[in-house]
Fold this protein.
Amino acid sequence: MSTPKKPKKAKPKRSWLGRMFRRLLTLMLTSVLAGIVLLFDGHQQLDAPLGLSEPRNFDIEAGSSLPKILAKANEQGVFSAHRQAIYLGLLARIDGRAAMVKAGEYRIEPTMTPRSLLALWVSGKTVLHELQLIEGWRFADALKKVRESPVLTQTLAPDLDDAGLMTALGQPGKSAEGRLFPDTYRFSKGMSDVAFLRKAVAAQEQVLAEEWAGRDPTLPYDGPEQALIMASIIEKETGVAAEREQIAGVFVRRLQIGMRLQTDPTVIYGIGSAYDGNIHSRDLLADTPYNTYTRDGLPPTPICLPGRASVHAAMHPAAGSALYFVGKGDGSHQFSATLTEHNEAVRRYQLGGRGAAQ
């Protein structure tokens, strides 16, 4: 008699819920793994060098969004890989720095990474350009230099006269000559010509105020403006820095006794564009507001941009009795107390010619 076979148990059917769970779990694991890979790659790319072989200046225009900035940088080959820009954009949005990027011109070095690049853009440490105004320059020389600057934004009309210019600088009614402080100025690209000139004006006003506050109380000046005029004459007469106070002393003593200054640089300034490099007898006789051979006292305005040393000398003239000086031919001068001594110095150093001052 045969034993009956037991019926096979039916395998339970997988529910749709279980299948969905496993799929979700697989998707989650895949996503986590992809996230880890992206995170690792992101850190690597953010700390990897940029795609530059040499330093480069990069401009960020005012109002530019971060995506626009990153696209521009990517187009210009700043990044070594496109995903550097993507990761940098993500980083900036995550930590809130996307809206902190400042406009300006930045110097990007090849050793920088995307992470340090973002820090630079947020810092606002833009490239600083230099423009030097030289002691002894006329205002017109300084203005020409400013107008020729390729990094200053030019806003002043080319035909604007000095009076209109001084009004634009907030100095209406003042002479333009001597108003700028000669120095080396550093500024960011895009600064306006007006802003630059105002900066130079403010610097000169500060120097003049500081030196005026500590001046010799016996000076014959009506105010700091006259001291600035004297400083400009000293600037043009001085070839040796150590002689500034001595030259100031000569001119101050002349003012005190009512003697004319008789200084060639003022005559040259009065001649203007007609000056041919030499002072002729007719020039000394031709009366202009700046001819200190024909007019008493100081000229009406400064004749150049005086530096701080000359302003200081104008406020602190050297004591002594010298009323004359003549150039020795090496930039220095021979000082004399009497006309007889001066004439002898002229014969000695100028070979019978007229001296540098009389």
